[in-house]
Amino acid sequence: MRFLPQMNPALLAGAVAIATLSAPLAIAQTTPPATASGHAEHLLADDHSWNGTPYDHYLTTRPMLSMIRLTIPAHSALPWHVHPYPNAGYVLEGTLTIEDRESGKKRTFHQGEAFAESVNNVHRGVTGDGQTVLLLTYAGSPGKPTSIPLPGQQKEY
């Protein structure tokens, strides 16, 4: 006859608890997930930028998508710059007034609003009383900048 060694009662209780908790996990892993569609809230669909300038064409080089979370202090103006590629922004926090240098057009975007940026138009963003946090998505090209400052200006980011 073979005897099992004495097990510490606390260890035995822990082993039983682990086995009990693991059983539902094994069952859950064998059940396939239900198929469901997600809820889409379309924030932006434009063929032109916020200032009315139409987008001409897409890149002919290898594309590279990039996304930036940009935080700008209150009462600040970004340097004058251009974007060589189409891009879109979404205001996560605060407000952003975009100014077009040539035309003088201005438009303010608030938290929860999306905007289509201009391509090859000199512009800048100006914040209000609080910091502004933006989510910016660019359709660029590997190794190429997504924002180009005017001569003598700082980089946008």
UniProtKB/TrEMBL annotation:
It comes from the Bacteria. SUPFAM superfamilies: RmlC-like cupins (SSF51182). Coiled coil: none annotated. Residues 70-136 form the Cupin type-2 domain. InterPro entries: Cupin_2, RmlC-like_jellyroll, RmlC_Cupin_sf. Keywords: Signal. Residues 1-28 form the signal peptide. This is Cupin type-2 domain-containing protein. It comes from Gluconobacter oxydans (strain 621H).
